[in-house]
Design brief:
By secondary structure, the protein is an alpha+beta fold. It contains 16 helices and 37 strands. A 7-stranded mixed sheet has the order 2-3-1-4-5-11-6, sandwiched between helices. Bound molecules: guanosine-5'-triphosphate (GTP) and magnesium ion. Guanosine-5'-triphosphate (GTP) binds next to α1.
């Protein structure tokens, strides 16, 4: 394997909506470039990049993976990413280490929800983008319609550099608007084609489309604009160089047409990647100066000190931890000792390798601009910088979304708790968007993630990779209790047995406080009705009792307890007695302070094609949601609402089936609010039954 330098490397992240054909397209590119002997198919579970058992089983990409194709003396690194909303952070991570995005769009559906999200993510990074309009062989595929939706939702300056030859099932090749030739592909999936003239009946259309392309290219560059006005057109060289320049400046986004399953247009896509997308050497790398903390841009060169960014970690039960990195400066060599600049530790590298899916090819060296991997680093994790001390730089870490949904997990085999936690620890290294831990209030082990599917996939990984089986249960809702009125109360503990008796007596006042203020204790004893040293015992008694709950065993919050009077016995009073008196007074007070139950309410944002907005709002209303806003972005509607957590446990399934998986949502904790009176009795009954160990139907 040749060692490539940055000028002959293209780093491309394939991003797009679920099922647009990203993985199939990578598979076709690898086949056409002769990297594999067999044309792998998603539908047969034989692609290079969907290698994980879960991916094969589900026929969807669940994590970013890496492949490369050598084409025209250039190494094209291809990062295949998931289209599922639950796994979008991997698409973001891939864009972060790529120099360009290949946005794959289904020619039947046009722009979809995730298309807009990945477009925006690439935009934020200022990445050049190429669009592959894929599945052009399908019924109702349309370049015109897709282009309209792309221009409306993504950018006005998306411009076809090809037209499809033949429609729908008759799709057989491409008309290249730069070369002004027609390329007809063999129908056997071999990716072979013949060059010919543009068919006469398409000549006019092709000429108009080329004219539009020339004008767009001219408009993107003042110098070319002048030439265009003088000569009325651009020369072939000016067009090619101008187009490349405009793409690199993210001013124009060219579009090509493909069928990934029929292997049509794919070699021309590879040509477009090499011809129009930036080489790794053409995009300076953004670094953080370790001393000043300021951003700086550095040219990508393999001269000088090394610096690499770890953008992904794989938890392999056999090979251990695999760290995937981009060399940004200098070069990384096998058996080198490197400095982890994030943790200020040193790591000894073993062999460094390139990844073709899961297949590792050891190489002596990986130069700036290239993507590689290394196994078994001691304490290097995703987001870390490996850099020579003398470089004195770091890379800005990526941020990952907080989990939106939690499930309670229990081991199927007793005693597997330790195994769960060590395996989960490793999976958390692989996937920073999951969460795992014991919930303080309910004491359950919670597995949190970006959605139902994410949690299921994590559970499946636990089983397949680490042999730990768990059951998933909807989590208990961390309800709380509070009071709605002030009340005075009395608690007296008195016991007269032989010898020392016990005596504690206190009067307290309970008052509601605003939401979120938890618990306050005030000592308002004057004149020594309770000796100083016993007041903390009263507080402790109230504290213990309020955590045990009054109505349904949930902690009581948002109130103030003031102790204002009491009495004592010079011999029999002790701390324990005053603690019990405090707790009795609390219970007495609760019985008169009109207690109620609080539930967590979530801020929810739902994204879906606008056609579904009405139905989705109706559904949120039926979940006791309060719609707080609605916004249209392109063809997507964003609905904002506040909805009780208890009503959101089943939301993802609903959203998926209601929108044909085209909707997605995000949710985070907002505040606690009172549960409506008619639902309280059920919650109380369920909690009581649970504490007594009785099975009850779901609330
Ligand atoms: N007819 C047709 N089917 C295609 C084409 N490209 C992909 N498919 C099929 O579409 C389905 C999805 O393709 P994938 O390559 O898995 O799509 P993806 O974008 O990787 O999907 P995710 O990984 O889930 O985001 C598979 O059944 C493919 O066989 C195409 O050009 N034409
Ligand atoms: Mg895929």
């Amino acid at each position: 394997m040749k060692v490539y330098d940055a000028a002959s490397i293209r780093n491309v992240a394939l991003v797009g909506h679920l099922g647009a054909g990203k993985t199939q397209l990578v598979s076709a590119m690898l086949f056409d470039a002769g990297m594999v002997n067999r044309f792998g198919k998603v539908d047969e579970g034989t692609t290079v990049t969907d290698y994980d058992d879960e991916e094969v089983a589900r026929k969807h990409t669940l994590a970013a993976s890496l492949a490369f194709a050598e084409w025209n003396k250039t190494k094209i690194n291809l990062i295949d990413t998931p289209g599922f909303a639950n796994f979008l952070s991997d698409a973001r991570a891939a864009l972060r280490v790529a120099d360009a995005g290949l946005v794959v769009v289904d020619a039947v559906a046009g722009v979809e929800v995730q298309t807009e999200k990945v477009w925006a993510a690439a935009e934020e990074l200022g990445l050049p983008r190429l669009i592959a309009l894929n599945r052009v062989d399908r019924e109702r595929a349309s370049l015109d319609r897709s282009l309209r939706s792309l221009r409306e939702a993504c950018s006005r300056t998306i411009i076809p550099i090809q037209l499809p030859l033949g429609e729908e099932r008759a799709f057989s090749g491409v008309i290249d608007l730069v070369a002004m030739k027609a390329y007809t592909y063999q129908s056997d999936g071999s990716g072979k084609f013949t060059e010919g003239n543009i068919p006469a009946d398409r000549a006019e259309e092709a000429a108009a489309a080329r004219e539009a392309l020339v004008e767009m290219v001219a408009e993107a560059d003042e110098r070319l604009m002048e030439k265009f006005f003088e000569a009325g057109t651009l020369t072939q060289d000016e067009l090619v160089a101008g187009l490349r320049g405009a793409v690199l400046a993210s001013k124009l986004f060219p579009l090509v047409v493909t069928s990934a399953t029929l292997n049509i247009g794919v070699p021309h896509l590879l040509d477009a990647i090499v011809g129009f997308l930036p080489a790794a050497s053409e995009r300076p790398v953004r670094v953080l100066d370790a001393k000043t903390g300021e951003d700086a841009l550095k040219p990508v060169t393999d001269e000088g000190p090394y610096a690499a960014f770890v953008w992904k970690t794989i938890a392999d039960p056999f090979a251990g931890r695999i760290s995937m990195f981009r060399v940004c400066l200098g070069s990384i060599k096998a058996d080198q000792t490197v400095h982890n600049a994030t943790r200020d530790t040193s790591e000894r590298l073993g062999s460094v390798f390139l990844l073709q899916g899961k297949t590792q090819t050891a190489v002596p060296e990986i130069k700036a601009g290239d993507l590689g991997a290394v196994a078994k680093l001691k304490d290097t994790l995703t987001n870390d910088t490996l850099a020579d001390r003398s470089a004195a730089i770091r890379f800005r870490p990526m941020s990952f979304p907080e989990p939106v949904l939690s499930y309670a997990i229990e081991p199927k085999t007793r005693g597997d708790e330790d195994k769960i936690s060590s395996s989960m620890h490793r999976l958390e290294e692989e996937d920073p968007t999951i969460g795992y831990g014991r919930e303080a209030q309910t004491k359950e082990l919670l597995l949190s993630g970006q959605g139902q599917l994410h949690i299921e996939v994590t559970v499946a990984k636990l089983k397949r990779r680490f042999g730990v089986e768990v059951t998933l249960k909807p989590p208990r809702i961390p309800y709380r209790e509070t009071i709605t009125q002030a009340a005075e109360a009395h608690g007296r503990h008195k016991k007269q047995t032989g010898g020392h008796g016990q005596f504690g007596d206190c009067k307290i006042k309970l008052e509601p406080l605003v939401r979120g203020s938890d618990f306050e204790f005030v000592d308002d004893i004057f004149g020594g009705s309770i000796p100083r040293n016993f007041v903390p015992a009263v507080e402790k008694g109230i504290q213990d009792a309020r955590l045990r709950g009054y109505l349904a065993g949930f902690p009581v919050v948002d109130f103030r307890a003031t102790v204002f009077d009491g009495s004592f016995h010079p011999v029999d009073s002790n701390e324990l007695s005053f603690k019990l008196a405090g707790s009795l007074a609390f219970k007495d007070g609760m019985s008169r302070a009109h207690p109620t139950i609080l539930e967590p309410v979530m801020n929810v944002e739902v994204y879906a094609p606008s056609d579904f907005a009405g139905d989705l709002m109706g559904d949120l209303n039926s979940r006791r949601g309060r719609i707080s806003g609605m916004d249209t972005r392109g063809t997507t509607t964003v609905i904002k609402a506040q909805v009780p957590m208890a009503e959101m446990l089943t939301y993802e399934q609903h959203l998926t089936s209601a929108t044909g998986a085209r909707g997605s949502y995000h949710m985070e904790y907002s505040h606690y609010d009172e549960v409506p009176a008619h639902l309280q009795a059920k919650i109380i009954a369920a909690s009581k039954a649970e504490r007594e160990g009785v099975e009850v139907e779901e609330v």
